[in-house]
Amino acid sequence: MQQWAASHHSWLADVQHKEAVDLMRAWCRMFETVGFDKAGKGIDFGHLLFTGDGLHPALGGIVPQSGFAGGLAYNLERTTQQPSIRFGGSVEARGSVNGFWEAGARLDVLSAADKLESRHIHATIDAEHYSLPQLTYFGQGNASSPANESLFGLEQTTAGGHLDVPLIKAFVLVAGLAGLWNSQSGASNADHPSIDRKFTAADAPGLDRPTSYLVSGGGLDWFYPLVPRPSGYSSALSTGFRFFADTNGAPYSFRRMDGIWINRYRPPTSFDFGTVSGTIRFVASYTTGNNRMPFYLQPTIGGADINNVDDLESYRDYRFRAPSTLVFQAEYTRTIWGPLAFLGFYDTGRVAGERSDIEISHMHHSFGAGFAIQFGNSPLMKFYYAWSGGEGSHTTYTLNTNNFGPGAAAGVF
After folding, report:
1. Which of 3, 27, 222, 313 could bridge to 386 as Cys pair (CB 3.0-4.6 Å)?
2. CATH of the domain at 155
3. Running DSSP on this structure, what letter comes out for residue 310?
4. Per-residue confidence (pLDDT) for residue 42, from 0 to 100
5. DSSP letters of 330-370?
6. Cα 41 to chain centroid, rounded
7. Closest CA to 132 of 73, 180, 63, 72
8. Which tens digit of pLDDT belongs to each residue from 17-61?
9. Phi and psi for 28 in degrees, rounded to 5?
């Protein structure tokens, strides 16, 4: 190590050398311990292997139904003194066994000035491309039938950025601008037909042509408490309103409003009673004139959606699709050993073609239980069995160590 420090080498070589040394030390510490301490050292090794500066494996599905995916991610961070700014960058590419792939890059710029609270102006610039050759479509609305299952492919590219500005108390103002390009196509396999064999542009808007958008908008986020704590009550509310202006002049412009409210409670006791959480997710989309929202940009519920957010897990992935959605989720998690935790959940929700049709009656329901492997409060892998809803049960897993994934609004900030 002293010989390396005394030699001349580049900053990138410094990063790679430090990563290699840290991994070797973490590996040795893990095998020098036993019992619970070994699990803790294993978590430390996992953090170093999948995160931090340098070259790392990127594992996990790209989107639901993509199959297992793997690739590489390269992360870098650097801080300047004058002005006091912290830079973080990532470049990543992954491919799956089913022919799905994605590649992207992101740059984060944060103010690093001394403040009593860790809240800074945060700017993000990113670009990603997704090639998704085979996704399922059942039709639109709560009454869509599993018998109408068909397949389509989607090529999607996003490029843009957003700015987060802390306000008074625990509020954050978010504003963004991006470009979004989509091209859909038919797809089929031995079990299911192509989407254009069962549907037309009348019941699958956007089926007849590609779309491109200039997306602009913003929102307001709030969280409590201001300083995170390991136990007690915490809450986070995220809202956004975005304008999707179709630059091709086709009748596919729309507006979308998103709201997510997450509440958690962990008893502040020495005994681990686990964590109870409740989440409300709401999407309302608006169109004017003869405009319609393309089917591949509409939110879905059931299994997991294109953002790898799971709800109504007893149903198939992408099962119910429409411009507006409302979902309630309740979950209980408790650590069993080390990073392994038990989880149980109940979800209920519905979709709607018009925002006026959103209501809390005639909702779909799903119960489930399973296990999660988590780093801190972030699950790395989830395996669960879900039932209820009248369409059988669903056993699945999620795995993700990735930097990227389609965002709350089709990958757009």
Report:
1. 313
2. 2.40.160.50
3. B
4. 75
5. EEEEEEEETTEEEEEEEEEEEEESSGGG--SSS-EEEEEEE
6. 27
7. 63
8. 677 778 788 888 887 887 667 767 777 777 777 777 888 898 888
9. -65, -40
Is the pTM value of this prediction over 0.85? Answer: yes
Cβ of 73: how many Cβ atoms within 10 Å? 22
Question: What are the φ and ψ backbone dihedral angles of 105, each rounded to 5 degrees?
Answer: -145, 150
Q: What is the pLDDT of residue 118?
A: 64
Integer CA distances (angstroms), 169 to 118, 227, 260, in order: 12, 11, 19
| Number of structural domains found in the chain | 1
In this structure, the chain runs to a length of 413
Nearest to 185 by CA among 117, 243, 255, 132: 132
Q: Which two tokens stand for residue 40?
A: 């803790």
Q: What single-letter DSSP state applies at residue 98? A: T
Q: What share of the chain is helix, strand, coil (3-state, %, to 5)?
A: 15, 50, 35
Q: What end-to-end distance do the CA atoms of the chain give, in Å? A: 42
- pLDDT band (50, 70, 90) for residue 8: low
Compute the mean pLDDT over every residue in the chain, rounded to the nearest whole number. Answer: 86
| Cα atoms in the 13 Å half-sphere on the side-chain side of 74 | 8
Instruction: Using the structure block, give the residue that is written with the tokens 């900053």.
Output: 11
Measured CA to CA in angstroms, residue 268 lies from 273, 276, 331, 378, 390 at distances of 9, 13, 18, 20, 39
Tell me if 35 is assigned to some domain. no
98 neighbors 131 (Cβ within 8 angstroms): no
Q: Tell me if residue 101 falls in helix, strand or coil.
A: strand
Q: Domain of residue 305: give its range.
A: 51-399
Q: 80: which 2 tokens?
A: 């300047």
Contact 394, 314 (CB under 8 A): yes
The residue whose two tokens read 């990113």 is 126
Decide if 230 is inside a domain.
Answer: yes
Contact in structure between 79 and 85 (CB atoms under 8 Å): yes
- Distance CA(310)–CA(306), nearest Å, equals 9
- Alpha carbon distance 301, 316 (integer Å): 9
> In this structure, is residue 25 part of a structural domain?
no
Alpha helix positions (H), 141-276:
195-198
The beta-strand segments (E) located in 24-84 are 54-59, 69-80
Nearest to 212 by CA among 248, 176, 186, 188: 248
Does residue 409 lie within any of the structural domains?
no
